[in-house]
Amino acid sequence: MSKTIIISNRLPLQISLEDSNLEVTPSVGGLATGLKSFHKDGDSIWIGWSGLTEEEIPENLLDDVKEKARKEDCVAVNLSEEEIDGFYYGFSNRTIWPLFHYFMEYTEADKDHWETYKSVNRKYADEVLKHYEDGDHIWVHDYQLLLVPNMIREKQPEAIIGFFNHIPFPSYEVFRTLPWRDEVLEGVLGADLIGFHTYDYERHFLSSVSRILRHQVNFNEITLPERIVKVDSFPMGIDYNKFEAAAQNHFKNTEEQRTELQRRLDHHSNETPEAKLILSIDRLDYTKGIANRIRAFEYFLDNHPEFIEKVRLVMLAVPSRSNVPQYQRLKREIDELVGRINGKFSTVSWTPIWYFYRSMPFENLIDLYTSCDIALLTPIRDGMNLVAKEFVATRINQTGVLILSEMAGAAHEMNEALIINPNNFEQISQTLIQAIEMPIEEQQQRNKTLQKRLKRYSVEKWANDFMKALHNTSQDRDAFKA
Ligand code: ADQ
User: Which pLDDT value is given to residue 346?
Assistant: First the structure.
């Protein structure tokens, strides 16, 4: 029987060492949680890095790591510290990530990083080839593995391969600046089906293929000498039922079950029922527009002092890629901004920004989503942004207002949110007032429509739609040959 082979940089589980014992915890993050149900329910294996470098795994535990992964139908790819440096922190996060998010000034072109990226992509492809059997469907994920589709294709020309890019694909004018642009496009074109979150990313990719590689592009099909490649948009959804159920449970919590954070947030609402809580949650990343958001909030308080003590920004930034210099600088910048603004506006009974720099357990995430009145998500660029969708799914009484940047892929599907340009502080400030003053009925009306859509376009449907389309490409291929 044929199976699906999922490949992503990280496995959906994280293996760590605690007092010389191996611990397995589920990975957080959109992709891991999203595909987990698809992986569990179907006949599939998942190939990726376990989270421990070769140097960190003691010789006698090597087989145990493999066994722990195998129990979850996972296969761990072993990577050394040097490989992680060049492949992950290097080429993936210092070249592709900034370039694809239009941060050209942050984009490095380091030949050694590129060489390591190639050899690590080869490692992932080799692992796939070890497990591949005729008829299997292969699904490669994201910008860390752009070369894997073609590396598999070279060895298995008949394989059915899908690729999904979770981040934006930039316009041709930006993409063309990459020194290894041909190799990257050829790598991805090893797939039969290439998926993006939005039609815009799809269009940008097609235009790069036609202008750089000069392949013929008809509508959403690329004609290669030996086969056709399909490109399409598949906007990723969330596990809606999980977030809805978690929010329902949150409200059923007894006094003892309530988390410390829930108590604090409830205390805030009881003490100052008219004061609005404005929430933001992101990985600490320059693409998420965190510094801009704080400046926009300052602009809002400067220009509308009537809201002093009437609003509070609750900001969760999850540590991320802290080995990369830009992330370290951003962390310092945000620390300074928060300090400056709290110093400037605080009163004896009020601080304008509550800032958490840490990862929080899922229950706390739900505490934040359910207790806040407004979500203010202002990425400068974002492939999709699942936080926007999760916030809406947890609003079980349909109150709450989502303010979302037009630069997030999610904005294309969430018209009922208040859509802003993250660089326009005056607009953000006016939109905050609109959100604060929005009548409950209007909030409910907007959220009802959003919830209906998010429930229907869940992550499960996303995965099934992609796999169905991939399956169809194999049938089209037979027709092409005939
Ligand atoms: P990210 O840039 O990581 O993902 P996002 O889509 O917002 O951004 O997903 C973050 C995920 O992490 C959410 O599911 C959220 O619940 C979870 N999360 C955040 N903080 C957490 C915490 N403290 N504890 C546990 N979980 C936490 C990339 C792209 C996005 C794209 C996704 C999926 O950059 O644009 O939407 O992949 O394709």
Answer: 96
Beta-bridge partner residues of 354: 314
Question: How are beta strands 401-405 and 311-318 bridged, if at all?
Answer: unpaired
Distance from the alpha carbon of residue 222 to the mean position of ligand 1, in angstroms: 31
Q: Any idea which residue has 């370290």 for tokens?
A: 328
The residue whose C-alpha atom lies closest to atom 24 belonging to ligand 1 is 360
ipTM above 0.85, yes or no: yes
Task: Order the strands of the 74-77 sheet from edge to edge.
Answer: 74-77, 44-49, 4-10, 137-141, 160-164, 193-196, 228-233, 221-223, 216-218
Q: Whose CA is nearest to atom 18 of ligand 1?
A: 29
Which residue in 377, 398, 404, 399 sits closest to 279, CA to CA? 377
Task: Identify the residues whose C-beta falls under 6 Å from ligand 1.
Answer: 28-31, 166-167, 236, 281, 283, 318, 359-360, 362, 365, 382-387, 390
Pull the structure tokens for residue 324: 């990369």
- E strand or H helix at 311, and its extent? strand 311-318
Task: Determine the distance separating the centroid of ligand 1 and the alpha carbon of 16, expressed in angstroms.
Answer: 21
What SS3 state is found at 76? strand
Q: What ligand 1 atom has the least distance to the C-alpha of 358?
A: 23
281 C-alpha to center of ligand 1: Å?
A: 9
Residue 334 vs residues 19, 70, 400: alpha-carbon distances, Å: 35, 41, 26
Question: How close is the Cα of 283 to the center of ligand 1, in Å?
Answer: 7
What are the pLDDT digits (tens) for 151-185? Answer: 999 999 999 999 999 999 999 999 999 999 999 99
* Per-residue tokens: 373: 């009145």
At 384, the amino acid letter reads M
Name the stretches of the chain with pLDDT < 70: 28-30, 480, 482
